[in-house]
């Protein structure tokens, strides 16, 4: 498997994981908006899922750059 195909597969997997992260972030933010005595878990979920989204964005940009170089 070439590096190009590997980058596409990694980006696709992270894309699906990012969709899940968006849904879970929505639920965590909804809980935070309603308030509560202990919101530590919700904030930690948002930190972790924010990291997942950041990794996806970096991987997507790297895959796009590789694809652009591959096409030339």
Q: What's the rounded overall pLDDT mean?
A: 88
Largest sheet: none
**What percent of the residues sit in helical stretches (DSSP H or I)?**
over 70%
Outline the low-pLDDT stretches. none
Strand content: under 5%
Order of helical and strand elements:
HH
Counting structural domains, the number is 1
| Helical run tally | 2
What structural category characterises the helix and strand content? mainly alpha
How far from one another are the termini? Answer: 20 Å
Shape descriptor reads: rod-shaped
Please identify the oligomeric state: single chain
Give the radius of gyration: 16 Å
The total of beta strands comes to 0
Short description:
With 72 residues, the chain is an all-alpha fold. Helix content is 89%, strand content 0%.
List the helices and strands and how they pair.
Layout: H1 3-34, H2 40-71
Key phrases:
about 90% helix; mainly alpha; rod-shaped; about 70 residues
Q: How would you describe this protein?
A:
By secondary structure, the chain is an all-alpha fold. The protein has one domain. 89% of the residues lie in helices and 0% in strands. The protein is built from two helices and no strands. The longest helix has 32 residues, at 3-34. The chain is rod-shaped and about 55 Å long. The protein starts with a helix and ends with a helix. The model has no long low-confidence stretch (mean pLDDT 88).
């Amino acid at each position: 498997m070439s590096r190009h195909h590997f980058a596409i597969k990694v980006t696709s997997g992270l894309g699906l994981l990012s969709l899940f992260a968006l849904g879970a972030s929505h639920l965590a933010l909804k809980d935070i908006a309603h308030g509560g005595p202990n919101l530590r878990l919700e904030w930690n979920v948002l930190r972790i899922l924010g990291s997942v989204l950041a990794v996806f964005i970096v991987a997507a940009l790297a895959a796009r750059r590789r694809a652009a170089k591959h096409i030339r």
